[in-house]
Amino acid sequence: MAKSLLKIKARGLRGGGCSIKDIAHQLGVSQSTTSLWCRDIRLSALQLKALLASKEKNITRGRLLGAQIQRNKRENNMRKARVKAQKLHKLTREGFFVAGLALYLGEGSKTTSVVEFTNGNPLLILFMLRWFKRFYRISKKDVRFSLLLNEQFKPLEQQIRKSWIGTLGISIQQFTKTRFSKVKRKKIYQELSTYLGTINFRVRRSSRILYELQAYMDRMIRL
Predict the structure, then answer these.
(1) What is the Cα–Cα distance from 18 to 39, expressed in whole angstroms?
(2) Residue 78 sits in the same domain as residue 20
(3) Strands, E, within the chain: which ranges?
């Protein structure tokens, strides 16, 4: 199509309220050329409002599409990670010991006079209870537990404790007094039914074990 005809068509589209970008795309010319052809055309307030609404819609659509792409990428990476993790079938005795030692290094107490471990993940608590039983012959009856809950969950204390009792296979007599954390701003929990707080377990008469753990951890981080 001749340039003069393209210009006439471009001006007609612009007068109809089309954006410079859309006109350029339809006619297959650059946006700078389209802008030059249509620079003297003034859009009405209604046309400008419609263009703005369309632009905002496109931006929103673009953001949603971008978010979906990122979500798909994240889910794909997670699937790949799960497949890769399946290669870990079983821990050796040494691997089990080092894993527990590393967890204690991160979540265990190093300053008290007894062994203490704190976490909010039931699977990690069970892992460490198995770990202490295997390597130090500590049974659950030698362990005392205490809950740390956000103060807004005080009415649910009994329910949360029962959940931990069922998960860990322990008795209510093994629990000490629950501690409540006071916060200036209340955190919003979307799934109240899944909130378990944090649990701390202490091994009675375990100072000797703690000294040994400290020696192992010191050795491990220096390797």
Answers:
(1) 13
(2) yes
(3) 115-119, 143-150, 179-181, 198-203
**The last residue of a domain, from among 38, 62, 82:** 82
Residue 108 to residue 206: CA distance in whole angstroms: 13
Q: How far apart are CA 182 and CA 184, in angstroms?
A: 7
Per-residue pLDDT of the chain (223 residues; tens, 9 = 90+): 667 788 888 888 888 888 888 888 888 889 899 888 888 888 888 888 888 888 877 777 777 677 778 888 888 999 999 999 888 888 899 999 999 999 999 999 988 889 999 999 999 999 999 999 999 999 998 999 999 998 888 999 999 999 999 999 999 999 999 999 887 655 555 455 678 999 999 998 899 999 999 999 999 999 8
Taking alpha carbons only, the member of 17, 13, 63, 55 closest to residue 34 is: 13
- Answer yes or no: is 87 within a domain: no
Domain enclosing residue 24, as ranges:
3-82
Q: Are residues 48 and 102 in the same domain?
A: no
Return the residue matching tokens 């010991």. 97
Based on the fold, state whether residues 213 and 126 are members of the same structural domain: yes
User: How many domains does the chain divide into?
Assistant: 2
Whole-model pTM: value is: 0.66
Whole-number Å distance between alpha carbons of 26 and 191: 50
Q: How many residues does the chain have?
A: 223
Q: How far is CA 3 from CA 9, 31, 35, 63, in A?
A: 10, 14, 14, 36
